Batch of 3 targets.
Target 1
Amino acid sequence: MSGSQGTPPTHGACTIRTQDLCRHYRLGDTLIRAVDGISLEVRSGEFVALLGSSGSGKSSVLNLVAGLDRPTSGVVIVQGRNLAQLSREELSKYRLHTVGMVFQSFNLISSMTLEENVELPMRFAEVERGKRQNLAHDALQRVGLVARMKHRPSELSGGEQQRAALARALINRPQLLLADEPTGNLDSHTGTEIMNLVRDLNRQLEMTVVMVTHERALAERYAERLIFLADGKLIGDQGNRSAAGEIKFQGERS
Amino acid sequence: MKLPDLTELALRNLRESGLRNSLTTVGIAVGVASLVAMLSLGIGLQQLASRRLVKSGLFDTVLVTSRRDLRNFGREEERTGPAPGESRILDEPARREIEHLPNVLEAYPDIRFITELRYDDKPHLTMVGALPSSARSNDAFDGMQGSFFSSETGAEVILQKSFAAELLGKTPQPGTDETKVAELAAPLLGKELTMRYAQRAVAQSQLRGGANARAGDSAGKAQGSKSETAYSVISREQKLRIVGLADLDPESMRGPTRARVFLPLRLAESLHVMQSTDLREISRAAADEPVYSSISVRVGNPTQVQPVENAVKKMGFNTFSILDATRSLRQFFAVLDLFLGIFGSLALAVASIGIVNTLVMAILERRREIGIMKAIGASDADVRTLFFAEAGAMGALGGVVGVALGWAIGQAINFGTNIYLKRQALPPEHFWSVPWWLVAGAIVFAFIVSLVSGLYPAARAARLDPVQALRYE
């Protein structure tokens, strides 16, 4: 299965490019090749799903692209910058401004209200206090949680928590949304709700989305492109006509 | 991250594990309190000691003696100055000259003599001393009964407690000096004593003439000029009213001989009581001008003692002051403060280990949170300063509470001790002092100690690998 279908012509220049990307761990005496020579390109505005069974290295690739981890070898270039060569400080700035992340387990800070959780990245970005509240309010409105903004995560359902996490991921207006099994802890109904939100962001804000999942059906429904990984290697890269068609259809409607 | 955000997040985190952080803060507070308590005790004691000593008049007083007085000083002094035999006599002109030196408040002769006092027709032999009116502020009179002399020339007398007991026929057991001054004062105040003493009087002219006439036959005319030094010794009596009773000996630390009965200085001078030096300087002193065995010179403040001493030495007299003693006293208190400070700091050191422990625990507990913060863009510096701020906030809060606690402990001990002092019939004392620099210093010290304690945990938190931290459940 080679990626012969190509990407829709609406997409712009290459946003993410990896070349022979490797990430090896040493666990005791054994060397684990979590990512083993992956080369791929993601274009600006694309919605890509990374598929594979657990241990296939899909999350590791996502962490490398997110700047949370550094490759053992190879390059990972995002918007023209090789993350492998950035300093720790530069990497944190990259995570702050260029990337938004959502996780399977939501990863909201339990001691903070939704509003404070959404505001937190702006604190690190040193956004003015007055501006921050407006932006947080807007972001929570986008995900439909304004009524719940003074609640703590533990008082909310999983779907609501993931929506809050999405609002937080968007708050610094990143170009890249990275999602690690975003529906993994949700029932199919709320999962669909979240995925619709992600798709809207991809369309309306023209964000590039890279989603890790092991649910092929979900990926086929939403992603324009499916990349298959196994044992740290890329084993397939295909366009997804149905999803692309759906996007076109919805794009025409709006 | 900006400072207000940092502070807000730090305080929020401290509130989150409120009990543990409160206990850590209490630990710091106890450490600071013990430091403050120890140091303020040291400072208070030092202030008490110097207050007492300044009041005792020891540190602003220079004792002047003639070089001709060979009893008191060592051979060193004899060798360096002019020979004793050729040196100046400590007489009235010398006293006036000393009194006019810069910074000298007063120079008064030490008049003391042993004589007989009659009370209730019983004779009592004791040492009598004279006090200038400036002695009024001497701390020996703090607990006195009655009053100080009404004037410098009044025919009045202040008794020392033990002499008063003797007058009343009470002989206190040695070692158990429990008699209250008030008990002794009641029957004695306002009563009269009769002092019998030897007056040195200028010889009557006719007597002198007669002596000349008789001496002239054998020794010739050369003897005639010397006749001016002649004086007579006449037995006199003086009635004195008892006005005061002092507990302590006002001169206990000053002279080698301890007086137990005190007269006003001017009165004592006007009586021309025979002094031991009158005999020694019989060949020199003019008959009506007394020669003093020693003169006490009071200066404005202790720092002026040295220059005055030097000036007096230049005049050819020996001097003595207790400035050297204060120097070693100050050294003693510096060492005392150091030791008290070290003991006080030990508690703070233990508290700082508490901070390290609390923050390291917090890292383990908040591992995931740190991972999340890093994933959404927190830099190493953000995480580090956040932990720093938490440590600093605990330190500052502990410092403030600790200073208040230390102050309260001090007040309590002061209060308790004064109850004890009162029971022992001693005047209350304030020996607890918390100066502002100690308050500020203790808080700053607690803050710095906390920041230092936060160094390791903060660095560890900042180094945390976000991928591993996020995997951690």
Target 2
Amino acid sequence: MRRILIIDDEDDIREVAALSLESVAGWQISTADCAAEGIKKAIAEKPDAILMDVMMPAMDGPTAFKEMQKLPEIAHIPVILLTAKVQGVDQRRFAGLGVAAVLFKPFDPLSLSEEISTALGWS
Amino acid sequence: MDPKLTPEESAKRMLAALWERNLPVLRDRLDQLDAASEAAATGSLSALMREDAASTAHKLAGSLGMFGYQRGTEFARKMELLFSEPGAVDALSLRELASSLRESVNL
């Protein structure tokens, strides 16, 4: 069973993503509502992948990703950024960070697990 | 989870429950956008209020489509762009978009 860590400060997004991945794909989900907690959970739980929001207060997704890359115990975990930014310049900036993939909000809850699987080559 | 339901049916049912639970937050956000649009129309939109409105519209743009309200996402995205653009704000368009957004989610 896949284990995914979802990091997002928005309750509704976090809950829908968790519900989607648990009920549709049967994956095991852990959540965090800020980047700092997410990094702690990533270290403790070593998930198979991390789904992380771009825009969060205190520490945003790109900064959190860079912090994760400095930690050898979690640097190998694929990170997928989740963003509602639709402008091309933002998309290219996020893709250029070296994350595994960038997915866009709003996502379809019924196909989110397929999108993740495809992005990570799990299918 | 109801064992007679497929995973997709079960997910749809739980999504509907989540939508209901999130309605108070959604109503607050729509009210914020209405207030910011009105403030823009009367020339009293502060920089902070404008920034908050852009952030609120961004959140709605990212979430409404998950619940099947794709048009709501599109209206919210247009509002986010209008609030984010530098210079004078297009108050007339904002008012129309705020109204269309509310209608699109039946609230």
Target 3
Amino acid sequence: MISDKGFFVLLWEFTSRHYDRILSLMFEHMVISFIALMMTLVVCIPLGIYLTRNEKIAPYVIGVANVFQTVPSLALLGFLIFIFGIGNDNAVFALFLYAMLPVLQNTYIGIKNVPASLVQSARGMGLKDMQILTRVELPLALPVIIGGIRVATVWIIGTAALAAAIGGGGLGRLIFSGLTQIRNEVIFAGAFPATLLALAGDQGLKALRHHLRPEKRALRIARRERRYEHKLTQRHALTVENAE
Amino acid sequence: MVTFEEVSKIYSDGTKAVDSLDLHVQKGECVVFIGPSGCGKTTSLKMINRLEEVSSGRILINGKDIRESNAVKLRRNIGYVIQETGLMPHLTVSENIAMVLHLHKWDKPRIYRRVNELLEMAGLDPDTFKYRLPADMSGGQRQRIGVLRALAVEPDVVLMDEPFGALDPISREHLQGELLDLQEKLHKTIIFVTHDIDEALKLGDRIVLMRGGRVEQVGTPEELKNSPKNGFVRDFIGEDQLSKISPDASISPLIEATPLTVQPRMPAAEVLELMEEAGYEAAQVVNRRGVWSGMVILNEVKKIARRNGQVDEAVRTDRKLKIEDATIRDAAQMLADRELPIPIIDESSTLLGLITAAGVARLTIHRLTRSVRPNTVPEQKTEQKSGKEWNRYDK
């Protein structure tokens, strides 16, 4: 269906008529991406930590993740049809496999790069292994890990559009139906929100990393503690008053 | 307090790091382990808090074998200071100190009070430093925090593994002094590892000199100096004693009397006459209360004299060194740039005297006839540092 009207007019007509559908597809897109991302984090961060404790197997595990990342994403979806059939399950699992590498690798490298002297100093103070992990290694590796999550997020949101190709949902539906009907405005109505989502995810994580920087954190602590000090002095003043 | 009984450490590759070490450290004593690198001094230290396990023999703390108690518990009751990298870069100063207190399950107000108390003890203003990151402090301040952290729960035993090794000589000397003061008050049992014999002689009640995993001699600094057991001990102590006058020592021995001081209100022509008569290139301008207001140089006095000005119009204050923190190296660098004498002042700007090129040359000859010794690595490090400080004076 090729119309004589201009692209922007068509786009306006389409979006004003189908905005509820676009929004619900966008929501679905976010849900698929979010589930896939969560799966990646839940599996890959602990796995990355485990690899720093078992260095011998690290190259093999990272190698496997690397293979999944190298297989073309559409082909990966195709392979998984044999396991999951068509639909969102397949898409979510494919996205998870696809995004494993950056999170796994950055967790591993981030923790490996924590200076040995710091770990030793912490151990010498009497921190248990778990405390060394949570109070020293992970906080110091956090910027690198968040960097990996950023890459994974953008990949997942971008690739999630392909889910529609194997019967899944998300903004890919609009893109694919636009392609089959040769309607640019429909393609655009799917592609534009998908791009926005990816950019928002990327910028959000960037802001999070900025927020967690030690300098920022030290300032926040200073503010909070000063309030606490203020409270203490006030309470002290009160007790003195009462005593009088 | 801490007793080594026939302690040996053999690594899995067969190297013997420590070979049947016997030592008894008294309560309140500071024992310094020293020796060339690879002599087993750090390994001996780490065996006390079980960062390294003993291969044979045993170590007792307060008569109790350290292997009987849980390693984590043991470490929490032993202070541990390592080189400046031991502070957590992502935590504020107060969090770094509080880390050990949290492990001992102290409550928040108590931690709060203790952190303030410790910072004040080290002469660091809590309001200024509490919420800083280690990266925002000087090496000396960082290492002070490291020592405070080790003392936070008042452990009886404190282990120090080359704590001042990465510092410039001036801060190192300051911190050594502070540690001595602290030890006078607290009487901790300190086991200290260093490769710097001056540090060992200064801080140690007793020194354990090691080589190749074996103890060569144990004794007070005097015993080691006066009756070394063998040639190795003599060489080890003697060698470094010669470097006492280092480029990073204080400038005070170089200060000479000021030959010509003038008052700021004197006519320039009069000063010019005084200078030319005696053949001085420069004169120091000092007011009635002895406060230094600058120096004048012959050429500039001449210019002012031509228009009948006062000497204070020619005064310059950029060339000076402060007695409190200037080193011989700073003085030598300034003199190398320009041969004029350098006025030396103290904190209240009182003129103490001059350093001249001739004076530095005399010192150099004195040193050359005593020893020809290549610079060691830490000294090279400080070269850049003092260069920076000197630039500050120059500006």
